[in-house]
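Question (not urgent): is this output format expected?
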Amino acid sequence: MHLSIGIVGLPNVGKSTLFKTLTSQEILIANYEFATIDKNVGIVAVPDERLQVLSKMSNSAKTIPAVVEFYDIAGLVKGAATEGAGLGNKFLSHIRETNAIVQVVRCFSNPEIIRNQHSTDPATDIDIINTELALKDLDTITKRIPKAESDSHRPGKEGVDAKKEVEVLRQIEEKLSQGQSLLDFSDNEVVKNLALLSAKPKFYLLNGKEEDVGQEVKDKIAQEGNDFVIADLSNPETIPDVIKKAYEILGLISFFTTGEDETRAWTIVKDSSAPVAAGAIHTDFQNKFIRAEVVGYTDFVATGGWSQSRQTGKLRVEGKEYIVKDGDILVIRHAP
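Got this back:
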């Protein structure tokens, strides 16, 4: 499963610093606006202590973690969507490619690091970025509505679907115009097809120490219905929390396969069935799925491995209707 998180924010808030710490890649980090013009992409392992425990128990030759792809996207500024300020349209198109967003907000105080001319405080920074995303989405919606309305007058199934699309587009247009959240539309097919920026899963990284983060910005994020992580990006120990939060907001879980050859964490959407999990391993396995042998991580470790789990009845045989749980260890049986 391909998973990507776009790192967005105003210039000089810590986006490239976050990316470098996450990925250990050498990229350009400079104290001036638009030091990043082309997006940087890095693959980051999802921290999971369970993986190492299983690998040691199985004496595995390889240990392979779940991963998330992070895009370091150049800083947005006021006017990016409507005026193309700061090469804004190019940067906004990079965000469209991602599954979710982490918005970096500057909460630390450092007069030596230039602050964007429109930025005065963290709450203002949030408003600037969210407004630019909403304006870009309004432009997308405005261009799409005439085509959908034209399709809605055509007879047959396509016309009926187009009428529903027009209704949804109008609702979204009203919400965006009023500065309202699109969280309620995140799972809507119209929104997914248009890859609207404001509807992408999102969390905030408040860059600073606990004492730097005021209650106002916390309340603002809570009112949106979003979550945040406070991380001092000068301290690498805070980074695992960022990766875990990115994995969490995408509604993802990990299941494991383990043996002498390798122990691996596989990524699936929460509430996926056993055949879907099988498909994460290999696409053919989903169609040819017969059954899954399943044992939970805690039971597997407590009993001491495969044979003991089987002997104590902790290992179960599950069929196509089984919903895989986070931490399940699976053996997939499939037709040849």
